[in-house]
Amino acid sequence: MISKSDDKLIKQLIQGCLKKRLDDQYKLYKHFYSYALSICLRYAGNKYEAADILNDGFMKAFTNLSKYDDCKPFHLWLRRIMMNTAIDYYRSNLKYRNTYDLDAAESIRDNGSIEHKLDYEDLLKLVQQLPPSYRTVFNLFAIDGYSHEEIALQLGITIGASKSNLFKARQKLQQALKRQGGVEKHSSGHLKVVSLNQYPAENVRFNTGMEL
Fold first, then answer.
1. What is the DSSP code (8-state) at residue 186?
2. Residue 19: what pLDDT?
3. At CA 101, angle to CA 97 and CA 105, rounded to 5?
4. Residue 106: helix, strand or coil by DSSP?
5. What percent of the chain stands above pLDDT 70?
6. Is 3 buried (19+), middle (13-18) or exposed (0-12) by CB count in 10 A?
7. Which of the four pLDDT bands, split at 50, 70 and 90, describes residue 92?
8. Cut 0.85: pTM above it
9. What does each C-alpha distance from 16 to 9, 27, 36, 73 come to in angstroms?
10. Residue 162, Cα to own-chain centre: how many angstroms?
11. Coil, strand, or helix at residue 24?
């Protein structure tokens, strides 16, 4: 939960960004760096792709900051931008490789237990090894809570393809678990969400000279 003092700081930084103050842009970037990176890492195949998505996402956030409704939490607005940027990256670079359409997808038995057997960091390592189409659908459905109908609309694929990719993603994750000898279920039975500040903000480019 964001404290009142933190909320006040964020609003001040946003106002500075709206006035094109580069110092406030960088402060806002650093403030939300870890949070935004944790989202990008899930959708990317590696840290370099994640860095590209992160920076494109922040560029979009700064460019469209005037559209932000300050009555709503800023981090949720930024989260949506990062997710949409990751999807755009997938569309423009990967062209839906490994996408399948199964008319009988509804009959696939899939208990969805794989994402509850791992903590966040273990899951992240395995998800990044998935083919791009599997990884994108798995993230949208299993972690971000989108329905297959919503995923199909966002990615421009059929509902059957979304269900098929999710099923195949979980199959591959199960296989990866078996190769590693299995992982004990986290005591809470849920994903353990942790901060993924593994890559210091100074290591990711921030274009302080950009026109917004």
1. P
2. 95
3. 130
4. helix
5. 71
6. exposed
7. confident
8. no
9. 11, 10, 20, 17
10. 17
11. helix
